[in-house]
């Protein structure tokens, strides 16, 4: 989804990258390696990722990269953790429609960015065949949905939406048509498409389409 351009400044062990937050040289090494991994994914795809080549591109010792990330899947998992941490915060306008329009526009800008769009295509493709990459991608979207869900909960509190509306499902409904268009058609992902996605999600939510059934959630 929507991302900032700054690299993260954390590091982790090979088993679970990104869980420790030292600074200094360790942070700079992680930032350089993740930047190199992201560039390679965007330019060449998942299957061209090679830890030795990433180390060369980041100007980091191979031993450091192998010790810290262990595998390509571990590196991609850490890259997705970093992307989630660095994603832009939600917009709060006081209006559900305006909030979700802002969300849709951020998603659109991310997917149409030459580097970020290509990176997401590569990661999504990899997730279909690699379990660890899939888990990391799921965590990425869980973080992003959780960031925007309060916009929906606040709309329920204001009386804009029915009680029991599933906030996460509303947020997902905004992104879903944008990702579908991005991945399956050659049609432009423009501001009009973003606007339609947001307005459709709002209309469905107001009609009660996302109200949780008793016993679910």
Automatic annotation (TrEMBL):
InterPro entries under this entry? Homeodomain-like_sf, HTH-type_TetR-like_transc_reg, HTH_TetR, Tet_transcr_reg_TetR-rel_C_sf, TetR_C
Protein keywords = DNA-binding, Transcription, Transcription regulation
MF terms per GO, please?
Answer: DNA-binding transcription factor activity; transcription cis-regulatory region binding
- Pfam family membership, one: TetR_C_11
Q: Name the domain of life this protein comes from.
A: Bacteria
Checking SUPFAM superfamilies in the record gives: Homeodomain-like (SSF46689), Tetracyclin repressor-like, C-terminal domain (SSF48498)
Q: Which PROSITE patterns match?
A: HTH_TETR_2
Name of this chain's protein: Transcriptional regulator, TetR family
């Amino acid at each position: 989804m929507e991302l900032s351009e700054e690299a993260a400044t954390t590091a982790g062990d090979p088993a679970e990258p990104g869980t420790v937050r030292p600074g200094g040289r360790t942070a700079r090494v992680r930032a350089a390696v993740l930047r190199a991994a992201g560039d390679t994914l965007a330019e060449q795809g998942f299957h061209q990722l090679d830890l030795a080549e990433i180390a060369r591109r980041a100007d980091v010792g191979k031993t450091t990269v192998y010790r810290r990330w262990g595998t390509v899947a571990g590196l991609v998992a850490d890259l997705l953790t970093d992307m989630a941490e660095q994603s832009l915060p939600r917009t709060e306008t006081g209006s559900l429609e305006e909030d979700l329009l802002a969300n849709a526009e951020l998603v659109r800008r991310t997917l149409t960015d030459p580097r970020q769009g290509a990176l997401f295509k590569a990661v999504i493709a990899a997730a279909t065949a690699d379990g660890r990459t899939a888990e990391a991608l799921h965590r990425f979207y869980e973080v992003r949905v959780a960031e925007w869900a309060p916009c929906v909960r606040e709309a329920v509190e204001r009386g804009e939406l029915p009680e029991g509306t599933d906030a996460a499902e509303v947020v997902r409904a905004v992104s879903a048509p944008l990702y579908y268009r991005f991945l399956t058609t050659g049609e432009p992902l423009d501001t009009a498409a973003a606007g339609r996605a947001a307005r459709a999600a709002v209309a469905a939510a107001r009609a009660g389409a996302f109200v949780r059934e008793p016993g679910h959630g």
